[in-house]
Specification:
It is built from three helices and seven strands. It has 209 residues and is of the alpha/beta class.
Length: 209
């Protein structure tokens, strides 16, 4: 059997090379957007209702009012706050924290005339890289406990928590879930201490984890 060899004309070769190059330059399939939260809330509240305490919710700085997952490269450009592409929170961080805290505090706001009100100010919620291989989640919340019937009774505390994480978006997400649980425990303990140490304090009974 005779094999037939066909010679490709020289002027066709650049066209073929260009088509192969164009194929290699085409963008790959865009990643599917993924949304995250902190996982299921506890099935059972950690503490019974704190009698007379009404939670007024979170107030966040403007850049935390969206759903972006933020990180910062301290070793390269500490002034630039970056966002993970294609990965977002299901709701703004303050909303996610409110949902779980309300379960922890077990149906707040049932008192018609609250003895105490609680407001939380979310200041920092980001993952910081000190090196390309080392990252930490940072959470900064200012809690304000106020007594409406006693105008001059107000106390506040700045909760600054960090959690070592894997240097990735998934690491940041798991770290913030852990930080949220830690913050809720420490917040409840602080509320109990502050109310008990004040005159005419309401007796609280909080079941620990």
């Amino acid at each position: 059997m005779r094999t037939i060899h066909r010679t490709i004309p020289w002027f066709i070769l650049p066209l073929l090379a260009g088509s192969f190059a164009a194929c290699s330059l085409l963008p790959s399939r865009a990643p599917v957007p993924v949304t995250y939260d902190f996982g299921p809330a506890p099935k059972q509240p950690v503490a019974p209702p704190l009698s007379g305490l009404v939670f007024l919710g979170f107030r966040s700085v403007p850049w935390l009012s969206g759903t972006s997952i933020h990180y910062r490269l301290l070793y390269r450009q500490a002034q630039e706050l970056r966002r993970y592409g294609g990965k977002t929170w299901l709701a703004p961080p303050g909303s996610l924290m409110s949902r779980r805290l309300e379960v922890e505090l077990a149906e707040l706001g049932v008192a018609s005339r609250p003895r105490y009100t609680l407001t939380l100010h979310l200041v920092t919620f980001e993952q910081d890289f000190s090196t390309p291989q080392k990252a930490d989640d940072r959470l900064d919340v200012i809690a304000v406990l106020h007594r409406p019937l006693q105008a001059d009774w107000e106390v506040s505390h700045d909760f600054r928590l960090t959690e070592s994480t894997a240097p990735s978006a998934e690491g940041a997400i798991r770290g913030f879930a852990t930080l949220d649980d830690r913050f809720n425990r420490e917040l409840i303990q602080w509320i109990e201490r502050e109310i008990k140490r004040r005159p005419n304090a309401v007796t609280l009974s909080i079941r620990r984890r």
